[in-house]
Amino acid sequence: MPHGKQTRVLLLSDMEKLDKTLFRLEQGFELQFRLGPTLQGKNVTVYTNYPASGEVFNRHKFRSLSWHNPTGREDDSDKFCKLDLQVSGSYQYYFSHENEKSGGGYIVVDPILRVGLNNHVLPLDCVTLQTFLAKCLGPFNEWEDRLRVAKESGYNMVHFTPLQKLGLSRSCYSLADQLEVNPEFSSPNKKCSWSDVGKLTEKMKNEWNMLCITDVVYNHTAANSGWIKEHPECAYNLVNSPHLRPAWLLDRALWHLTCEVAGGKCKDKGVSPLIENDHHLNSIRKIIWEDIFPKIKLWEFFQVDINKAVQQFKNLLTQGSKKTKTDPKQHLVIIQDPEYKRFGCTVDMNIALATFIPHSNGPAAIEECCNWFRKRIEELNGEQFRQTTYHQEQAVNCFVESVNYERLADHGPKLGAVTRKYPLVTSYFTYPFKELTLEEEEPLMHQPDKSCHFMAFNGWVMGDDPLKNFAEPGSNVYLRRELICWGDSVKLRYGTKPEDCPYLWAHMKKYTELTAKYFSGVRLDNCHSTPLPVAEYMLDTARKLRPNLYVVAELFTGSEELDNIFVNKLGISSLIREAMSAYNSHEEGRLVYRFGGEPVGSFVQPRLRPLIPAIAHALFMDITHDNECPIQHRSAYDALPSSTVVSMACCATGSTRGYDELVPHQISVVSEERFYAKWNPEASPATPGEVNFKSGIIAGRLAINRLHQELGAKSFIQVFVDQVDEDIVAVTRHCPNTHQSVVAVSRTAFRNPKTSFYSQEVPQMCIPGKIEEVVLEARTIERDAGPYIKDERSINGLPDYTVEIREHIQLKESRIIKQAGIATKGPNEFVQEIEFEKLTPGSVIIFRVSLDPKAQDAVGVLRNHLIQFSPHFKSGSLPDDNSEPILKTPFSTIASKLTLADLNQLLYRCEAEEQEDGGGCYNIPNWTPLKYAGLQGLMSVMADIRPKNDLGHPFCGNLRSGDWMIDYVSDRLISRSGACAEVGKWLKAMFIYLKTIPRYLIPCYFDAILVGVYTTLLDLAWKQMSSFVQDGSTFVKHLSLGSIQMCGVGKYPSLPPLSPALQDVPYRLNEITKEREQCCVSLAAGLPHFSSGIFRCWGRDTFIALRGLMLVTVRYLEARNIILAFAGTLRHGLIPNLLGQGTHARYNCRDAVWWWLQCVQDYCKIVPNGTDILKSAVSRIYPTDDSPPQPAGTWDQPLYEVIQEAMQRHIQGIEFRERNAGSLIDRNMRDEGFNVTAGIDSETGFVFGGNRFNCGTWMDKMGESDRARNKGFPATPRDGSAVEIVGLCKSTVHWLLELSKKNIFPYRGVTVKRHGKQTITYDEWNRKIKAHFEKLFFVSENPADRDEKHPTLVHKRGIYKDSYGASSPWCDYQLRPNFTIAMVVVSLKTLHAQLRNGLFLFFWRLKKNFLTPQVRSEISCPGECRQIANLIFHQVPPVPGYFLSFYLKQSDILSYLFYFFPLNRSSWKGLPELTNENGQYCPFSCESQAWSIAVILEVLYDL
């Protein structure tokens, strides 16, 4: 990855639909798609419509991305495909598997905005926008004087409402012609053109450093638009939308009611032209129900003509018409007439004929049948009547509520008397013809030349689904009168593609191109009601002309998920968010925190990191042109503090012209006809039509706009909001590079200070660090400038309010602060205590704060030392000439002296291991102890916290509260000797500086230090391993860390001592005896259950895992020591399963010795000169079966003799009773179970042994439950010849045969001492097994196979038996996974076809919970349940890697390889012993198991 390049990784998961998830990226970023666990090993193809280099974006053209595999390995852990994002916009991706779409989503790439002659970048978070109503700018030649107000106020973007010709209503958003400039902008001598507008916007961009955006209105056009009359098909009319005909008729009836009320014709019914009270409303409701609805009979549009339908049915019956076969589940329903004529609906006569069947063909029977049919039609018509009545009820309620709002409500417009100009309610449809009676008008809706001009108006529906078009069929919004109607604008009917309405799409495309040509961005008006296909098409058109188009939208979906759908599909750059939605200062502060920035003290994120969901970028506006006036709802005093709170948000901010001048009313987009004031520096406050810095809060606005732009440009990206009291909000913006802060304290005035009580006692504030200056202090004050009089020609504000402002002063000069003192809040936590004197409502004070000088130096030094890990820390770093000597050495040099055993101490060590050493894992109060004492314990937690910046986590709280965790990390290492202690000293020296910085920064820098150390240690670990690991994939490297995790040296030796004659055995000085003792690495079976003491080492586990964890990772010397240590414990021809340091061993398993022999074989084959180990001295603890333990060196013999003894004892036969048999060593085993037998069958060469009461292999787990009646009974006794042991034996015999041929192994065979001496050569033994293995273990598909001893027990053919010769013959015939071990170690070359299916079955079982629901339901006691679970979990495959190894060798494919491996998800960073169903957590399992990691690593190595 190039230096400095930001890369995000999106992990793909099968069937994951992310259409409602927002992923924001910047241009220049690289996006990598990688396969998640559910897709790894599958043939996945990723498609995207992001254009290839040199191509033009086509939303519907997708291309496949090529996969890159940097390691070239077989596994998928590093495989990725990528996009280099250089073009802004919205892009879709999806991925498929086996030609089926498996998931997908969207990415949104932000535009890069540029201003000025030098084309410098304007970051989105620096945007300060002001909205202008275009019609209030006056003639074009006066625009500059009026727009200059925005420039002088510090705004860098102007939003114009549409500049087009307006409709009759004069609404800024009702456009008569989308392609014509508003003629009102022209003067008598000069016609204003688009070219003139373009020159102005270019001048503003280059000379004023301001960008211009404007609205695009796609939903509607003015009712008087000339083109809509020529192309009525572009609107929803009664021809192309006949479903609106009933709603049109109701609308006309209500219009006629308006005319009657306006004419005073309803007075006798209780309704006068002036609606004044609820009685009038109730009277209107009564008129509609009693006069209008019965008259227009809307239900008839949804009903069937009964007589006509019955006659048709009767004719069909009489004619004996053949019935068409119908679905018996279909019932008779009304089919809506598509033309919506009265009684035009029908029913399906085929269903009728199949439903109503006469019992004969006689007239009486037919008549009876018709009567039943008639009755059913009447019922259906009744249902339609009731449904229509339901719609009418809603229509009446909405109608009356509208009348109430417009004429009675205090917050409504109070329109006064009903007239034709101000009707009872706004009409829903246009009616451009001569007015007739309602009876005369109804037929017009069926005359296409007339009804095509009855067009539906647009509006919005409260609480409606924004993804549904309320004017389309299926919606009853117009009939139910639920539309809040804009009676000046016709709703446009696009369809879903240009072919559906060619003229409309072409017309709006020209409109879009015109806008994109002259403006840097667009505001999508009423975006939530804009059909998505339309907006997609138009924005694609705009971006072809202006690739970095800034797209702003207003969305009122009420749901972040729905917002994301629009943002994703349209590539919206910023969503408008309204501060006026805040009902108090607390909510206003919450919005600031919500809409941008990260928490103060956030973690340093790597350049390569996961792509995480985002919220839409906000354009946070203190007021929009649609909002009601804040002076009326709050107070004039609130304008300055609320605008300051908004400007401190880490996002784009904005306002509307008039707010800064304190205009005390809403500037209506419909009715306002006055012009804005011009800029005149010399104007007096009362001068009409002119403003300057003395007007309103303009001076304060300039200061906060400049500050907002500075904070965005200088990366003050961290935000903290403090609600000081009910009215005071303090917002902090913090720069994580310099650790400077800007703190704005605003005392809002949501209540008018003149009429509401505000306490003069302002809480004292503590500001961390050193206040460098007061950037700004300002107060809203009154002055004597005369009362407000609304000017007739220009929009004017309150003249008697202004801002008293002072900038860049020292604390002592402040008039708001009474005094400031310095205090210590805690260790090295310096704060300045501020006592306010005149922080009156309407006041703000803004501080620039740096860290305490000592803390600033400490941060600089820390950053300087962190540069060795990342260049990110260069900014703000300081050289350190007085640092501890150890810090002058690069950490990588200090770490280079560490061994892999040292890294076990540094990185891992679980609780039990640490307790054995006298310590323990760090316990976080109110949470849990860490999984490891080493760095991995910390890193696992921080890996979850860091991406989310979860600074509220108890982990971070503990760091902020004290130095306990910090000291634990360094002191734990210093207490150890050697290289580990040096690392501890380096950390302690770094932590000296860490402890002197403010507590809120400690989690961030603690994480940065540990991340640098951790990654350095991981690199060091891999460099000490094999080239397979060093050049391997991320998955291989992470698996290889299991070698460090499991292999370590504790305070007490876990292995028995090796022979003193051996070379290169590690020694140390015993802390207690002060004598030299061996300190060999031992291999833990699993964490945390088998990690320490006598339960750490197990023969079976050790030698299943040793090849993967030690030989594959080239830890040859340590592997040799473990092999020889176990060799020294040989007794009865067996090695122990539970090692117990050799002196507490249990020789109760038959398979451990064969795993050990297999491992010796692997060592000889993998290690250079590996057969030299056969001559290595083995110090026997038990030279004879009954001898007491012998000290190391007392009885040495070469390894090959020990191997021969194991083979000899098996051929001779093994039979003994365990020492100390009884409850002391196993409380559950029956007495017979302590009897151990093993031997070699003389005819077959198979190893056999055991009885049905002992546990000689993994799957013989002893039952422990009295309640389940299994105590003392192994779950599945495997006496006889277990298939995996026979396979391991065959592998060993063949290997010894080959060595003996080369004279490397001095024995040619073994001697049987039964009836005289008889020598059996290894060649003979090998041939015996080979001759009998297939014959006796494979269950033939031929039922007549003579070799099958128990054909009646066969329940599945084409499989390998689990055992042969069991005392219970049925046990032999179980299909179980153990045969795969034999298949791998003997390298079987053939694979029966049916067996291949069996392999899939076993792999499927890997993810199944073998504790069935039935068993769970029968066990009520948790203790019993645990015992049952312990019994059952031994029945799953112990070594899934052997299945994988065998299967992959046979099929050479990599399917399903990583589905169940939670390596990266687990806090233990390992693979569990087993899981429950579908990979769910199993509480009885080891969290990290040695053989689980090792065998997967082996598979990848063998590939």
Automatic annotation (TrEMBL):
The keyword Transcription regulation does not apply. GO terms for cellular component: cytosol; inclusion body; nucleus. Pfam families: GDE_C, hDGE_amylase, hGDE_central, hGDE_N. Residues 31-115 form the Eukaryotic glycogen debranching enzyme N-terminal domain. It is found in: Cytoplasm. Residues 696-973 form the Glycogen debranching enzyme central domain. SUPFAM superfamilies: (Trans)glycosidases, Six-hairpin glycosidases. It catalyses: Transfers a segment of a (1->4)-alpha-D-glucan to a new position in an acceptor, which may be glucose or a (1->4)-alpha-D-glucan; Hydrolysis of (1->6)-alpha-D-glucosidic branch linkages in glycogen phosphorylase limit dextrin. It comes from the Eukaryota. GO terms for biological process: glycogen biosynthetic process; glycogen catabolic process. Its EC number is 2.4.1.25, 3.2.1.33. InterPro entries: 6-hairpin_glycosidase_sf (IPR008928), AGL/Gdb1 (IPR010401), AGL_central (IPR032788), AGL_euk_N (IPR029436), AGL_glucanoTrfase (IPR032792), GDE_C (IPR032790), GH (IPR017853), Glycogen_debranch_met (IPR006421). Residues 121-550 form the Glycogen debranching enzyme glucanotransferase domain. Keywords: Cytoplasm, Glycogen biosynthesis, Glycosidase, Glycosyltransferase, Hydrolase, Multifunctional enzyme, Transferase. Residues 1072-1387, 1463-1498 form the Glycogen debranching enzyme C-terminal domain. GO terms for molecular function: 4-alpha-glucanotransferase activity; amylo-alpha-1,6-glucosidase activity; polysaccharide binding; polyubiquitin modification-dependent protein binding. Belongs to the glycogen debranching enzyme family. NCBIfam families: glyc_debranch. Multifunctional enzyme acting as 1,4-alpha-D-glucan:1,4-alpha-D-glucan 4-alpha-D-glycosyltransferase and amylo-1,6-glucosidase in glycogen degradation. This is Glycogen debranching enzyme. It comes from Sphenodon punctatus. The gene is AGL.
